Amino acid sequence: MSQRFKQNIDEVNGRIADAAAKAGRSASDVTLVGVTKYVDAEVTREFAQAGHRVLGENRPQQMWQKQEALTDLDLQWHLIGHLQRNKAKRMVELAVLIHSVDSLRLLKAIDGFAAEQGKVAKVLLEVNVSGESAKHGFSPGELPAIVEAAADFNAVQVDGLMAMAGLAGDHVDARREFALLRSLAETTAASGLPGNVKMQDLSMGMSGDFEIAIEEGATLVRVGSALFK
Hints:
By secondary structure, the chain is of the alpha/beta class. The chain has eight helices and eight strands. It has an eight-stranded parallel sheet. Strand 5 (121-126), helix 6 (143-150) and strand 6 form a beta-alpha-beta unit.
């Protein structure tokens, strides 16, 4: 299985490099987050030992369980799914990046827990670029006010934005939505940013559309099934 994982990792990295080259970018500008939500801790161990240590989980409990089972490995854990405020304290302790901040109340809670722990929590603001009611995230119009409010927090660093393409759309829709996220980041940065806000990262793209996302500016792609096939 480890050999299969190595082949999958190499294949996906090759696709990332091709997509980056097509867009005139360097593959080194894109971080592959291996999404382990459908596999258990032992399969995750084999995958990590095959050569990839940047991992993403949708559910906090699953991340915690796997992190506890794999403490002997040097892993970087990203939370890519919805986070409730009552789980934010432990997430601040373990995650190197929280992709899915979708409310000002959550951002404030993360800031408080990070301050208690004497650290600065790195986060992304999730934007609902598809407008689907089932999706979490700020509306594009809310973004300027949220960025302005972030200036009041001393223990949070906002590194950029995160989005998911709409469930009902095709690749044309996905490209439009990814382009919208990039445009929002550029417009927000151009309007002036607080010291703790940067628009340097765009987390967008999954197994079915990560190449399009890279062409539209993604710096983090969240890939699961293409790595665990």
